[in-house]
Specification:
Layout: E1 13-23, E2 29-35, E3 42-43, E4 46-47, H1 55-67, E5 69-73, E6 79-86, E7 92-107, E8 119-122, H2 124-130, H3 134-144
Parallel strand pairs: 1-7
Antiparallel strand pairs: 1-2, 1-4, 2-3, 2-8, 5-7, 6-7
Length: 152
């Protein structure tokens, strides 16, 4: 649900994000979600593109900063979704998030935004239910059905 109608005439601002995934001992997949700092809704680690970094590198950096996770990030996006970001001045801006897969290898105890967000692992179906953006829920469901052994 968004704060208002998303008009197709508005130019979406680009963002980059990761879909953090790991294998369970039973061979299933889990998805890591974090809470946003302002509204505390469940989201994926994401942010603005970074000068001097490729989009997938910037997305991996956001994962480290927001959730303390590191791993192997895919260079090809798995998709994108749209959402309305509320700015500090209360304006809303339409954002298009390009999402890269992240095979999480390690979750650090210390990272820049520790204590500012909650992070939790979910099954793909649970994660899809927790997010409010329909496009992101679709990406999560599709990722949960992918064979993680296939090259990304």
């Amino acid at each position: 649900m968004t704060a208002g109608p998303i008009e197709s005439s508005r130019e979406a601002r680009p963002q980059v994000g990761v879909l953090p995934m790991r294998r369970t001992p039973e061979g299933g997949t889990e998805i890591l979600l974090v809470t946003s700092r302002e509204t505390r809704r469940w989201i994926i680690p994401k942010g603005w593109p970074m000068k001097g970094r490729k989009p997938f590198e910037a997305a991996a950096r956001e994962a480290y900063e927001e959730a303390g996770i590191v791993g192997r990030v895919g260079k090809r996006p798995i998709g994108f979704y749209l959402y309305e970001k509320r700015l500090k001045n209360r304006d809303a801006v339409l954002c298009q998030v390009t999402v890269f897969p992240l095979d999480v290898r390690k979750q650090l105890k210390k990272f820049p935004e520790r204590g500012q967000r909650e992070a939790r692992w979910f099954s793909p179906s649970e994660a899809a239910e927790m997010v409010i953006e329909a496009g992101l829920a679709g990406l999560i469901r599709a990722a949960g059905n992918r064979d993680p052994k296939k090259k990304r």
